Amino acid sequence: MTSRRFIVEPRGLASMRLLLLVPMASVLAALILGAIFLTLTGESPWDVYKKMVDAAFGDGRGISETLISATPLILTGLAAAVAFKMLVWNIGAEGQFLLGAIFAAGVGIWLGDGAPAAIAVPLIIIAGAVGGAFFAGLSAVPRVYLVTNEIITTLMLNFIALSFMNYLIFGSNSPWRDQAVSTFPQGRPIPEAGRLPEFFNRLDYGIFVAVALAIVAYVLIDKSRWGFEVRVVGDSANTARYAGITVPRKILGVFLLSGALAGLAGSLFVAGTVGALDPRSLDLGLGFTGIIVAALARLHPLAVVPVAVLMGALNNAGPSLQSIGVPPETVTMLQGAILVFAVAGEFFIANRIRRPEHEAVPGTTSTEVPA
Amino acid sequence: MNDWWWVSTVAFGIGLGTPLVFATIGEIITERAGILNLGVQGTMLVGAVSGFWATFNSGSLILGVLVAILAGAAVSIIHAFLSITLRVSQIVSGLALTLFGTGLASFLGKVGSEPLVGEPSLVTFGAIFEDGIADWPLIGPIVLGHDLLVYVGVLTAAAASYYLFRTKLGLSLRAVGEDPASAEAAGINVSHVRYVHVLIGGALSGLGGAYFALKIVPTWQDDPIGAAGWIAIALVILASWRPWRALFVAYAFGFAQFLELRLQTLGEPWSSIPSTLLAMIPFALAIIAMIVVASGKRARLLGAPAALAVPYFREQR
Q1: In sequence order, what DSSP letters do the residues of A288-356 get, joined into one string?
Q2: Which of B45, B69, B213, B282 could bond B256 through an S-S bridge, CB–CB 3.0 to 4.6 Å?
Q3: Element (H, E) at B73
Q4: ipTM of model
Q5: How far are the Cα atoms of A199, A281, A286 from residue A64, in angstroms, in the given order?
Q6: Nearest of A153, A135, A126 to residue A259 by alpha carbon
Q7: Which range among A72-81, A147-156, A177-186, B278-287 shows the weakest confidence by mean pLDDT?
């Protein structure tokens, strides 16, 4: 370790400027990488990106569709942010989202046409949270009381939730299935009274519910006593234990909260634009996109909102690319690349890199990066 | 009802389990070095599309397999760099690889003036022994009726087991996964060992993906591998990080998946069970098995590497 070209040392608190700069640089780097792939495959990156911006923000309809796509992403992003902050690796937002949608549609259909909106809407939304929390509980309880790896159980439960939804709509004559349509199985619509009103093109009030929940999550995690204890557990379970915090109960609480948030994404989907448990309109991948949102937002609940709008814009722009002969999956690739660069960016937020001027003082925590 | 229906079910199960054999053993090797790679699904998809593309353009299956292996190793560099050099969370880094790989594979399958999507493969892997031999009772379909890669899968299990438990390199690999600081004190380059085995894992995942595209679903489609990459990650635990056991749990999973299709053809009462419910069973079994055999300290007793998913900071020894 005689010749070191760079010295890497932990940075204390990163500046606000850096915290904003790194995520922006990750998006830019992903766009550059995407441009390289597009050029290599004979497409014009400029045309593609211009088309995407037009589709996502070009007119009122585009903006409303972008915000519609962003609504569930705010919630799945919050679900990941809240859990990951405490090192609870809930990657089952996908399944919890579906269970939320199933519960919400179930309650909506059960209420029927008689219930007034003032009762139906809150009940449907809460049902989604309960569904998501229940499904998260299936992983959370073994995680907390038996120390079962939650990564695998949440992951497997995603597939169980997907099959269960398919069973309700395609595999059985369940109440969720629309009996009036016999040609192709689809979800039965919930009553109009249970739907969130639209106010700007197809955009409904769900976006405000999502933003409000982001603020609630911020206050809960960053400002409340409960949130403080949760953060202590996330930083060091041992410290928390010495401080008299009951760690298992905190982990359980965070896990269930995370599931409830993902489930709320499902209920807003059902009460919002879709209005039914419909496998064809339920966007798959929202749970995983939520993880990108959380990572790019650096697990900050308020930052989740603008990042979700960006990801929603990308999701919304994807299908429009078909009209210029470019696969919509370009967008998925870009999102994956954004996450790769955002994750790499964490290193630059956590560490300072400099050229060695003098030999580092022995005992400091510098390390050498072989270049 | 054919009395021997289960013989062909076992035979097909071995075929369906073979890509899982490659991916699971690859992930075992990676995890034995202390790196959890959740990028298997994305890596398999990149292997599938690149292998399919190479065979489609050359007509050579072997070239397709080689390209898939190289592509799998190449995309795994992303995870290796993020988790070993930059030491970010292995979980988020692996997910990033999966998302990027999934998007990249779909993109490559659809882009260009003559997209691959919907194209059938010109050649696929066929049985290596002649028909007469494969018709022998029992042994024929189950043991002798397979294509080359099924046997390569068995050899991979043998080779990986020998490498991990009988060679000096395997010992240093396991040392890195158990206690990187001590391994380094013993003169082992921890980063180097981890890089190499993340790439080996990626190469095997790429090969597993190619088996889907060149045998199981030999027409390019957007999602040729289902959830195989995720399943492989769960199978690592059920195989308790041992290659031979991986072979059997992968075959068992393949068998369960094929049984699900097979029950539909067996008449009442079997065919009245909704396939959407049957599709849940393997996942439910995997969860129950996880809870029963791999909870808490039992995971360590099974063989979980002690330093799994823990970034290694040299200066914090």
Answers
A1: HHHHHHHHHTTT-TTTHHHHHHHHHHHHHHGGGGGGGT--TTHHHHHHHHHHHHHHHHHHHHHEEEE--
A2: B282
A3: helix B61-80
A4: 0.87
A5: 10, 17, 18
A6: A135
A7: A177-186
Mean residue pLDDT of chain B comes to: 88
Q: Rounded to an integer, what is the distance from CA A224 to the centroid of its chain?
A: 23
What predicted TM-score, i.e. pTM, was given to this entire model?
Answer: 0.90
Contact at 8 Å (CB) between A90 and A288? no
Find out whether A82 and A254 touch, Cβ atoms under 8 Å: yes
State whether residue B88 sits within 8 Å of chain A by CB.
Answer: yes
- Output the CA angle A270-A272-A278, nearest 5 degrees: 35
Optimal mutation site among A37, A149, A338, interface B, most CBs of chain B within 10 A = A149
Output the pLDDT for position B290: 84
Cross-strand partners of A204: A198
Label residue B155 exposed, middle or buried (CB < 10 Å: 0-12, 13-18, 19+).
exposed
The pLDDT-based confidence of A283 (bands split at 50, 70, 90) is low
Among partner residues B99, B103, B290, which is closest to A149 by beta-carbon distance? Answer: B290
Q: How many CB atoms lie within 10 A of CB B212?
A: 25
Percent of chain A with pLDDT over 90: 52
Q: Give the pLDDT score at B1.
A: 39
Across the interface, which of A84, A167, A342 has its CB nearest the CB of B277? A167
pLDDT value for B317: 44
Size of interface A-B (CB pairs under 8 A): 168
Instruction: Establish how many alpha carbons lie within 13 A of residue A337's alpha carbon, considering only the half-sphere containing its beta carbon.
Output: 24
Beta-bridged to residue A275, according to DSSP, are none
Nearest CA in chain A to B233: A152
- Are residues B286 and A37, on separate chains, in Cβ contact within 8 Å? no
End-to-end Cα separation, chain A, in angstroms: 12
* Residue B240 Rama label (left phi>0; alpha psi -120 to 50; beta): left
Q: Is residue A370 a contact partner of residue A1, using CB atoms and an 8 Å limit? A: no
Contact: B42, A369; criterion CB under 8 Å: no
A336 and B233: CB-CB below 8 Å? no
CB contact under 8 A, B99 and A365: no
How do residues A141-188 score in pLDDT, each as one tens digit?
999 999 888 988 999 999 999 999 999 988 888 888 888 877 788 888
Q: Which of A176-185, B64-73, B281-290 has the lowest mean pLDDT?
A: A176-185
Chain A positions in Cβ-Cβ contact with residue B89 (cut-off 8 Å): 343, 346
A200: CB partners within 8 A, 6+ apart: A60, A64
Q: Which residues of B are less than 8 Å from A151 in CB distance?
A: 38, 91, 233
pLDDT at A1: 46
Contact between A151 and B87 using a beta-carbon 8 Å cutoff: no
Q: Are A305 and A92 in contact (CB under 8 A)?
A: no
* Contact status of B96 with chain A (Cβ, < 8 Å): yes
B-chain CB neighbours of A346 within 8 Å are 86, 88-89
| Backbone Cα Rg of chain B | 20
Beginning with the edge strand found earlier in the chain, give each strand of the sheet holding A367-368 in spatial order.
A351-354, A7-10, A367-368
Are the Cβ atoms of B313 and A147 closer than 8 angstroms? no
Minimal CA–CA distance to B21: which of B155, B142, B200, B188? B155
Q: What's the CA dihedral at B32, B35, B36, B39 to 10 degrees? A: -120
- pLDDT tens for residues A205-262? 999 999 999 999 999 999 999 999 988 888 888 888 898 888 899 999 999 999 999 9
